[in-house]
Amino acid sequence: MESAHDNASGTRAILADADVTVRKALRDLSMQALGMDVVAEVADATSLEHQVRRLKPDLVIVGWRMLAPAAAAVLRTLRASCHGTRIVVLGPRPDVRREALAAGADAYICMVDAPATVAEILRRASEVAAPQENEPGGVS
């Protein structure tokens, strides 16, 4: 499923998760609280790769489970094809963080993180104009 949204201005973001409820929550947070432009929503890795190449967003927020079983490989492919795009992974558990960052994510959000923590991680990721060398902990 793909859809485009308009917003006044801000970071151009793609939301990627198989769960429409997760995408809706991310869209509400991204657009209303952080002033981002959600330019596409996708529900699978193939659509994500296509939309990233087509739209060249500033930020991709992607669910780790949607990428399974080849999550690390998909992240490496995204990183290689979108040098100026920040990638934030939304994952199920804190222990997935290291794997996501090693595969090319700029930041990691755990589904159990408090909304204020999620907003802060997304705010920091969106403020960075272009990816920097991954620091040990990423943006988060």
Structure report:
The chain is an alpha/beta fold. Helices cover 42% and strands 19% of the residues. It contains six helices and five strands, in the order βαβαβααβαβα. Strands 2-1-3-4-5 form a five-stranded parallel beta sheet, sandwiched between helices. Strand 4, helix 5 and strand 5 form a beta-alpha-beta unit. The longest helix is centred in the first third of the chain and has 14 residues. It starts with 11 loop residues before the first strand and ends in a 13-residue tail after the last helix.
Summarize the structure.
The chain is an alpha/beta fold and 140 residues long. It has six helices and five strands.
Please give the structural blueprint.
Elements (H helix, E strand, L loop, with lengths): L11 E5 L3 H14 L3 E6 L2 H11 L3 E5 H4 L3 H11 L4 E6 L5 H6 L4 E4 L4 H13 L13
Parallel strand pairs: 1-2, 1-3, 3-4, 4-5
Provide tags for this entry:
42% helix, alpha/beta, disordered N terminus
Percent range for helical residues? 40-55%
**Strand count, sense and closure of the main sheet?**
5 strands, parallel
Number of helices: 6
Q: What overall form do the CA principal axes indicate?
A: globular
Spatial extent as radius of gyration? 13 Å
Order of helices and strands: EHEHEHHEHEH
Strand content: 15-25%
Q: Strand sequence of the main sheet, in spatial order?
A: 2-1-3-4-5
Number of strands: 5
Distance between the termini: 29 Å
Unreliable runs, pLDDT <50, ≥5 residues?
Answer: 1-9, 129-138
Structural class: alpha/beta
Q: Average pLDDT across residues?
A: 83
